[in-house]
Amino acid sequence: MAADNILQQVNDLNKKLEDAQNAQKDSEEAISKAASDISDTRESLKQIGDITTNALSKAKTLYDFAEELYKRAKDISKKNTENEINLDKAKINAENAGKSAKKATEDAKIMIRDLYDGISEQVQQKFNASDVAHTRAEDLLRRASNLATALTTSNKSLQKR
User: Fold this and answer.
1) Is the Cβ–Cβ distance between 83 and 115 less than 8 Å?
2) What is the rounded distance in angstroms from the CA atom of residue 34 to the CA atom of residue 40?
3) CA neighbours within 13 Å on the CB side: how many for 153?
């Protein structure tokens, strides 16, 4: 019976040794797999770092481009404001010219009524000159209005961009 016990203990010990060897083999395989995973992870992290660096460079370039566009838009807005002011002045000048021409026309009509028939040719010439000036003033007013409309349309188009 003592020999059976010793044999049993030896068999148990061999079984434990075999289990330990299997566990050691499994550990070695796990360590090898972990080393491979670490290597793969390092490579992935390097690729991510390269992609991140590239993305940051592109983002900086895009930011610089957007900043330049902002500056251009600001300059265009300033020029547009100046153009609108100049256009308003041109409209006022055209309106004043129209009023002056109209007054000149009215004055000429009054002079024609007041003068003798012999002087009517001179008055008629002045009347024609003032009428031409009036027509020219109306043409200037029409052109200024067209310019204002075109400029406003252009401004709105630029602001939408």
Assistant:
1) no
2) 10
3) 6
pLDDT of residue 140: 81
Which residues are CB-contacts of 76 (< 8 A; sequence separation ≥ 6)? 158
Contact call for residues 127 and 70 (beta carbons, < 8 A): no
SS3 content of the chain, % helix, strand, coil (to 5): 100, 0, 0
| C-alpha–C-alpha distance, residues 156 and 84, integer Å | 12
- Does residue 136 sit in helix, strand or coil? helix
Which CA distances in Å does 20 have to 42, 60, 142?
32, 58, 103
Record the tokens describing residue 87, joined without a space.
């256009």
**Distance between CA atoms of residues 75 and 93, nearest Å:** 27
At position 155, the amino acid (one-letter code) is N
Range with lowest mean pLDDT among 47-61, 104-118, 125-139: 104-118
Most distant CA pair in the chain: distance in Å? 167
